Amino acid sequence: MGYKEEIARRRTFGIISHPDAGKTTLTEKLLLFGGAIHVAGAVKSNKIKKTATSDFMEIERQRGISVATSVMGFEYNGIKINILDTPGHQDFAEDTFRTLTACDSVIIVIDAAKGVETQTRKLMQVCRMRKTPVIVFINKLDRPAHDPFDLLDEIEKELQIHVNPLSWPIGSGDTFKGVYNIYRGGLYLFNPGGQTLPEGIEIQDLNSDELVRHIGERDAHTLCENLELIQGVYPTLEQNDYLNAEVAPVFFGSALNNFGIKELLDCFIELAPSPLPRETEERIVKADEDKFTGFVFKIHANMDPNHRDRIAFVKVCSGIFKRNTNYLHVRNGKMLKFSTPTAFMASKKSIIDEAYPGDIIGLHDTGTFKIGDTLTEGEKLHFKGIPSFSPELFKYIENADPMKSKQLAKGIDQLMDEGVAQLFVNQFNGRKIIGTVGALQFEVIEYRLLHEYGASCRWESLNLYKACWIEALDNNELIDFKKHKAQYMAKDKQGRDVFLADSQYMLHMAQENYKKLVFHFTSEF
Ligand code: G4P
């Protein structure tokens, strides 16, 4: 197979949802289709359970397991599919945001009884920012559900994207009879807990007796009415509208019952994009360029304290990545080669000789990488789109063991490179501040500093509203601002100016009084 065909047959995507909507179940069913796993339940262990909020060992164990399931690759109908796992736990939301930067498209799972929930809304914001094409799967139709038209309206309103139903449910809960596949035609009857996949029933004329025979007069009547309404409201899907992230195709089903999944998958491989061109600070990189480029979007620490090595996850953006070949680590200017790059096929990790655009490779790392690093064949490129988000919780971090200050500094440094949290140094008093998106991270950091670096830390509470990156349209204004707000000025790890606002009011006043300063909530602008 030629290089271009290899690229064209790749689909790299993430599944996102609010916890409990059914992401893990859907992932598992997709893997079953690809023959990547053979029993249900294999993916479950990856989930950070709600009960684990303060059980570090459990978190670490689950983090460890999730290395293997971070990327799940399999083949289906000649298409190479890479599913990137995103942690559902909201305290790890930033991990999810970064993983989304390596996805070429996204499937959003929504619980039919709950509709759009907070986490879905937040994640969709990131997709919108990056114009990532999304497909929606409305799950749990085997349970009492909201009216499908109401669900579609809610999605349009809450997720700010047009929708286009490609399948339609007949009833829900006890009265759930199945779905009608609008995209391909055909009726699929629901058989709860059924072992075999339902065959689509072709129905030539929806107004004939055939439909009534299968689902009864009342449902047949309602379905015909609904389909007519859909035709009037939602025009035929244009693939480009989906690819431009303007319209989201919608499917209905029940992941637990393996119902509606095959239709979703069949349509997904047809519609979803192969690796997309990517922006760098210098130029746009196309997937089919000859030379290899890639970027690090995730770093995973080894949970074994005796081996403090890590795996850097690299998304191949262009060219062919080859084993034992020298590549430029753009940030530090060094040439590096990798003798044991791994790929993740069928939930197994194995050493590979080459990888194509869209693929994710795991590189053994002893601390040379940080999130966002670029690898190339020599060109000095910097991939964009891997921002840090303004953290929501802050604490001063102090050394609790004077004999171990070096270890502490190194530990903090490396954990920040991994993207566990963000470090800010207050320019007024020189104190180090750790900012996170969830309370769990503080526990993870403390635990890992002790177990991986032998360092002890102490936290001191700090009430801040937000940390914002400052962009100065007028340098004099920045100088003036820094003079007046000296106590609230910090630098991030890249040395950029950050304003630590201790209240919404304070931020508001700063925005009012300094019109030539822009306060950003993500580090990339
Ligand atoms: P998540 O990864 O998005 O957090 O959700 P997950 O797949 O773990 O699903 C959450 C719960 O919803 C699970 O039940 C799962 O079995 C159930 N579920 C998923 N899809 C469907 C569906 O189509 N219909 C119904 N009725 N339930 C569904 P649980 O009891 O929390 O977990 P478990 O004890 O079954 O593992």
TrEMBL record:
GO terms for biological process: regulation of translational termination. GO terms for cellular component: cytosol. Residues 8-276 form the Tr-type G domain. GO terms for molecular function: GTP binding; GTPase activity; translation release factor activity, codon nonspecific; translation release factor activity, codon specific. Keywords: Cytoplasm, GTP-binding, Nucleotide-binding, Protein biosynthesis. It is found in: Cytoplasm. CDD domains: RF3, RF3_III. GTP binds at residues 17-24, 85-89, 139-142. The keyword Cytoplasm applies. It comes from the Bacteria. It holds the Pfam family EF-G_D2. Belongs to the TRAFAC class translation factor GTPase superfamily. Classic translation factor GTPase family. PrfC subfamily. Increases the formation of ribosomal termination complexes and stimulates activities of RF-1 and RF-2. It binds guanine nucleotides and has strong preference for UGA stop codons. It may interact directly with the ribosome. The stimulation of RF-1 and RF-2 is significantly reduced by GTP and GDP, but not by GMP. This is Peptide chain release factor 3.
